[in-house]
Design brief:
Number of domains: 2
CATH superfamily of the largest domain: Bordetella uptake gene, domain 1
CATH class of the largest domain: Alpha Beta
Structural class: alpha/beta
Low-confidence stretches: 1-15, 18-23
Number of helices: 12
Length: 318
C-alpha cells in the first residue's frame, strides 16, 4: 500500500521541494531537545535518509523546552505542506500531555502521525554490590523504603517504569530524582543510590568496566550489546518493558499522497542493514512496527498506562 501511494505522491512531493530549492529554504525537522544526545543521532539518520530518498534539503531545527511541548506546538500549528516535520518522542505524546495542565495540543488529533522510527534501549542498572534483580527486591522487601532508585526527573521514562515495577514486585523503594542522567549514575556508582533505569548509550561504558551491574533489560527483547542480560520481563514480570521511542509527525491535514511518500522514505531510512547496525551501536533498536496505525495505537495505550502511573506516583498536572 505504501509503495502504491508513494507513486501517486511523487509529483505532489516534488513541488514543495522544488520551490524550497528555488527559494533557498529547507524542510525543517524540529527536534524537541537541545543539540546533543540520542535525539541528534536519530535526527541525523532521519534528515540524511529523507534527503537521499526524496531530494531537497532537510535540516534539524532544535526547539527545546517545556517538556518537548514548545516543539510540538510549533509543528501542530505549521502549514501541512511537508516543509515542517517533528521528531516525536514518548514524552511529547504520552507523558507531557498528562503532566502539564495545558500542553497546547491534543497528542492524537493535532498531528499527522507518520510512523515510529526506533526505540531506545535501556537497562536496569545497580551498584555492583547487587548481584541480581531478585536479590535487590528481596532486600527491598526486608527493608521497606530504605533502598532507593534514581531518575533524571519526576514523571520521566526513568521514573514511571520503576513505579510500575516496584508495585508489581510488591516492594517500597525511595525515588531520588536528579537533574539529568550523569549525576544519577554517579550516585549509583558511588553506592549512595541503589539502582536506576539508564539508556544503554549512557551506561554501557560503566557496565562494561564493572562500575555498575546490569540487572535486566527494560525492553521487549534483549539488548543487542548485552545479549546475556535477561529482560526484566523474563525475570517474573511479563509484559514489562518497551522503553522510550522516536517517531515522525507532521502538521494535521497533510495530503495523503505526501503523507505516504514521507512515511515510505522514513521507513526505508531506518530499515536498511546499515541503519540497523548503526542504531545498535548507539543503543537504539529498530521499531517493531512502522506506519500510522501502530504508532497511534501505541500513543493511546501509553497515555492510559502513564495516566495511571502518574496518579500512583502522586504526579498532578502542573
Amino acid at each position: 500500500m505504501i509503495r502504491r501511494r508513494a507513486a501517486l505522491a511523487a509529483p505532489l512531493l516534488a513541488l514543495p521541494h522544488a520551490a524550497a530549492r528555488a527559494q533557498g529554504t529547507a524542510t525543517q525537522v524540529v527536534i524537541p531537545y537541545a543539540p546533543g544526545g540520542a535525539s541528534d543521532v536519530v535526527g541525523r539518520l532521519l534528515t540524511e535518509g529523507l534527503a537521499q530518498r526524496l531530494g531537497g534539503t532537510f535540516v534539524m531545527d532544535h526547539k527545546p523546552g517545556a517538556s518537548t511541548t514548545i516543539a510540538a506546538r510549533h509543528v501542530a500549528r505549521a502549514r501541512p505542506d511537508g516543509q515542517t516535520l517533528l521528531l516525536g518522542t514518548i514524552v511529547t505524546f504520552s507523558m507531557a500531555p498528562l503532566a502539564l495542565r495545558q500542553p497546547g495540543y491534543d497528542p492524537v488529533a493535532d498531528f499527522t502521525h507518520l510512523t515510529q522510527l526506533c526505540d531506545t534501549e535501556a537497562l536496569l542498572v545497580a551498584n555492583p554490590r547487587w548481584e541480581s534483580l531478585a536479590q535487590l527486591f528481596e532486600a527491598a522487601r526486608q527493608r521497606p523504603g530504605q533502598l532507593s532508585y534514581a531518575s533524571w526527573g519526576i514523571g520521566t521514562t526513568a521514573h514511571l517504569p520503576m513505579v510500575e515495577l516496584t508495585a508489581r514486585a510488591g516492594v517500597e523503594m525511595l525515588h531520588v530524582p536528579f537533574n539529568g542522567s550523569p549525576p544519577a549514575m554517579t550516585e549509583v556508582i558511588a553506592g549512595r543510590v541503589d539502582c536506576m533505569i539508564a539508556l544503554v548509550a549512557a551506561c554501557r561504558g560503566h557496565v562494561e568496566a564493572g562500575r555498575m551491574r546490569a540487572l535486566g533489560a527494560v525492553t521487549v527483547n534483549r539488548v543487542a550489546a548485552f545479549p546475556a542480560i535477561p529482560t526484566v520481563a523474563e525475570q517474573g514480570f511479563p509484559g514489562f518493558g518497551g522503553g522510550a521511542w522516536y517517531s515522525l509527525q507532521a502538521p494535521p491535514g497533510l495530503p495523503e499522497p505526501l503523507k505516504a511518500r514521507l512515511t515510505q522514505a522514513a521507513v526505508e531510512s531506518f530499515s536498511t542493514p546499515e541503519a540497523i547496525a548503526f542504531m545498535r551501536g548507539q543503543g537504539l533498536a529498530p521499531a517493531a512496527a512502522f506506519g500510522e496505525a501502530p504508532l497511534v495505537a501505541r500513543i493511546r495505550r501509553e497515555l492510559d498506562q502513564h495516566r495511571e502511573l502518574m496518579a500512583r506516583a502522586g504526579i498532578q498536572q502542573g
